Every structure is written in C-alpha cells, then in structure tokens.
Amino acid sequence: MAAYDPIADWYAAQVHSGSLSAFLGHLASRLLEMAGDVSGKRVLDAGCGEGHLARLFARHGAEVVAVDISPQMLHLARTFEEQDRLAIEYVEADLADGLPSHRRSFDLAIANMVLEDCEDHVGVLAGIADALEPGGRLLLSLNNPYAVAARGKVDDYFRSGALAQTFGTEQVRYEVPFYYRSFEDLMTAFQQQGFLLRSLVDVRPNPSDPHLPDDPVPKIMLLELVRHAS
Q1: Considering the entire predicted model, what is its pTM?
Q2: 18 or 166: which carries more pLDDT confidence?
Q3: Position 130 pLDDT exceeds 60
Q4: pLDDT (tens digit per residue) in 14-32
C-alpha cells in the first residue's frame, strides 16, 4: 500500500486550506511560471497526489495526465475532477515501472515535492524520461540538500538514505518515508537517465510561511531539466 494512503484525507485537507496550502500553492505557481505557456502542451504530473498541480496546469490549457501510486489519493483527485471537469486523465501506477502506454508522449513533466518520497528515485526518473519526448523538460521542486544538512536533519551530508518525515498536530502525528540525497547523488541520477540541468532557482524565505523559514541556506529549490534529444 502506498505510504500516503492512510493520511490521504488529512493531507488533501492540508493542501486545500491547511498548513500546506500556501507552501505547495506557491511552489506550484513557481513551476507554472518556469514552464511558460503550456496551452496545448501534453503534461505529465508525476506523483500528482490529490491533483492540485494537475488542476493548475489544466486550467492554463495543458492536456494533463496525472500519475500516482496511492489509490486513495487518486480517489480524491477523481472526486475533484467530477466537481470541476478539466479533462485530466488520472492513472494509478508506480512510475519506477514506467508508463508503457505513454512512451514519448509528453512535452513536459512536473513534480512538486515528490522525488524525495520515492525510494527508487532512479527508477522514477527513468520512467519519466521514457514518457517524455526527446528534448522534453522535467520541472521539479525539492528540498535543497545543503539546507537539510545545515538544519541538522542529517548527521552526514554525504550519506544519502531514508529519514522519517512527520506530519500532523500535537494530538495526531503521521510518519511517511523521506529519502534524503546529496546534490551529487541527485545530479548523477539525472545524468544517468539522460537529463541535463538547464536552470536552478532558489526559493526565497517567506516570513508568513513556516515551511519557508529564514535560513542562511534556501530550503527549497526548483530545477529545470531537459531530456537528451538522442
């Protein structure tokens, strides 16, 4: 069972109007800005969750296929689709196994705070690469690994591995996997799957959002990667 299934309802509520709303909404807007004009573009939302990013891109004219491994998250996403029809296709799949029915189908792939939830990040990147047309782009947000180390979340910056990620309140706590990787490990995985780094944007602190603290090292970064044409 996908790790987010047990907390899907709670997590979706936080994305819509709770503690994660401003944070994920801001990152989604930044990814859309980085994407440029998406009208008529075929877009893969990798790790769509309850579909907030897929809906944003669809409202701007993209043809979106949204993929997630969590059946409960997809149930919520499809419920929102019934309420506000945007012609989004939702697919339950593990991207590490690829998307055989969508090979070389997309101009663009997007992933908002997703890659660190994936144990097999290399396999997920391979699945995304296979779904992109040559020259297609991957836009993603993720924690800056230097900030993870600077904030004391890991004892050794150079040692990639699994950490516990805690959500919730003082009364109810939820733990889901979080996989820390050094920047070198990330870049190696990107290059192995045929991606080149085109741009990197540091997300600036926001005093009104506790998820974007005023640290000496930016917590979140946005990456624009391009799939090799060959």
Answers
A1: 0.93
A2: 18
A3: yes
A4: 888 888 899 999 999 999 9
Are 92 and 68 within 8 A, CB to CB?
yes
Distance (Å, whole) CA 148 – CA 207: 19
pLDDT-based confidence at 7, cuts 50/70/90? confident
Q: Which of 173, 177, 140, 175 is nearest to 161 (CA)?
A: 177
